[in-house]
Amino acid sequence: MSRWQRLPLAHFGVAVAAFGVAASMAVMQAMSRANLSLPARSEQIYYLSVTAHGVLMALVFTTFFIMGLGYVVARTALAQPVEKPGLAWIAYAVALAGTLLTTGAILAGHSSVLYTFYPPLQAHPTFYIGLALVIVGSWGWCAVMILSHLSWRRTHPQAAVPLAMHGMMTTVIVWCLCTVAVAVEVVGMLIPWSLGWIKTVDPVLARTLFWFFGHPLVYFWLLPAYVVWYTILPREAGGKLFSDSLGRVVFVLFILLSTPVGFHHQFMDPGIHAGWKLFHTINTYAILFPSFVTAFTIVASLEVAGRMRGGQGLFGWVAKLPWGEPLFTAVVLSMLAFTLGGFGGAINAAFGMNAMIHNTAWVQGHFHLTVGTAVALTFMGASYWLLPRLTGRGLRFAAFAQVQPWLWFAGMMLFSISNHITGLLGMPRRIYEAGYQGAAQAALEPPSGGRTVWDRFGLWTVLAIVLIVLAYGYPLYSLVTMHRYGSPGVTGF
Ligand code: HAS
Ligand code: CU
């Protein structure tokens, strides 16, 4: 194997290892949610596992996979060596050291602050220092990507950069813009506070800096998946991309609109004026647009592919698509999940409806469709496609790779749809106690004991009358006592 493939493969290795640990944490959470009485089950273990799961999946698995994919794109799409490979390896080592520090802090049991690490929940200093190192490492990756782009630009002053690299550069820019805020939060506030150098931090300011970063973070995950959808999928399906320039418009819109939307995570926070929340809402609705364009462009490309393979009629082309290819199946199932997840996003972004779903299980339903399926399943499909090309060896157990996307899709749909429903019913997210402290209304079969207060119809009727009098007494009184104008009957229509 020549040398350059080692760099992305080393990144994919960390991504897969983080994924493995995070997935085992998910089993612990599922047991807690199922309210099973297991010997190891406790509040401490639950919050530890939710933190490890969130940090390792959302922050480590994604970042390492994306850095690796970025190097593959820079090397192959630009058809030139990646610039400054030494810096790339240093960045890798720094991010890996940070990951180990943060993971150690979580597993040691004194940093169960969840992946959003909102103060005043306080973690061990090594938790924040590790995260800061992951970010510094990712900046090294950004530098290598930008330098590679610039060196290509020098030798190709007039050419359009290949679409895959265009998408990766978008990812890099979004990341550079947003990580500034989380660096200020972590380095300027949380590290000194956890070390005891400063006594207090402002939770609303910290959350605001976090979401300044946190929403663009989700597009940092999504954009590399879009690179796969736009540049690998159409060819693998046997056709071609419907429009290259639409792809570029989509990527540029993400540069513009990824960040000024973060207040849609803080609708329920005090301290931020409603007018600013409205401004972020409008921007959020604007950023739905590039994903609608993507839905159109990619489905159109698939139709082109299906017809080139001989598909006829309105839907005959769907059956002609290469359903036996793991990359194809994984991406199409990702897209189907994203259709639901995206509509959920539009609901989240509406202030009134957000009040209904905020901090409920709905939210974890939403993000297991978006990052947990659209992004993660696309990355899995991309791995099936990339690994043989990077290593020069075929996939082992290739039949598993055909079944696995369906299993992931089925599991995530089951998980996410039920979390959307239970969220609407009021089930909170990130709460250990699935039994609601034994409250009767939470039990599967409410104890059917003797007569309780709920059978006292007289009491409830009186209370209802009091409420009706409160709600209508004065309005009706004032209608009756003000000067009134009678209306004759209107007829003849
Ligand atoms: Fe979100 C919360 C709004 C997209 C991730 N989101 C979260 C959280 C995460 C997350 C992790 O407005 C939880 C944060 C926490 O821990 O507190 N989200 C949106 C909106 C979008 C959106 C408007 N989210 C994402 C993506 C994510 C992600 C992408 C990760 C990758 N989200 C919110 C809001 C909240 C939120 C509020 C806060 C909730 C709260 O109160 O806490 C949009 O970008 C979505 C656009 C997508 C579409 C779908 C387009 C469909 C396509 C596929 C079509 C393909 C087909 C296949 C039909 C409009 C492109 C055809 C197949 C054939 C074979 C032909
Ligand atoms: Cu968001």
Overview of the structural elements:
This protein has 493 residues and is mostly helical. 71% of the residues lie in helices and 0% in strands. The chain contains 15 helices and no strands. Helix 1 (6-33) packs antiparallel against helix 2, helix 9 (274-308) runs antiparallel to helix 11 and helix 11 runs parallel beside helix 14 (398-424). It starts with 5 loop residues before the first helix and ends in a 12-residue tail after the last helix. The structure holds heme-as and copper (II) ion. Residues 116, 218, 221-222, 264-265, 284, 287-288, 291-292, 294-295, 299, 302, 318, 332, 335-336, 338-339, 342, 345-346, 348-349, 354, 358, 363, 366-367, 370-371, 375 line the site of heme-as (HAS).
List the helices and strands and how they pair.
Layout: H1 6-33, H2 43-76, H3 85-107, H4 125-155, H5 163-194, H6 203-231, H7 233-236, H8 244-257, H9 274-308, H10 316-320, H11 326-348, H12 351-357, H13 361-391, H14 398-424, H15 457-481
Helix pairs in contact: 1-2, 2-3, 2-4, 3-4, 4-5, 5-6, 5-8, 6-13, 8-9, 9-11, 11-13, 11-14, 13-14
The site of heme-as (HAS) has 34 residues, from helix 6, helix 9, helix 11 and helix 13.
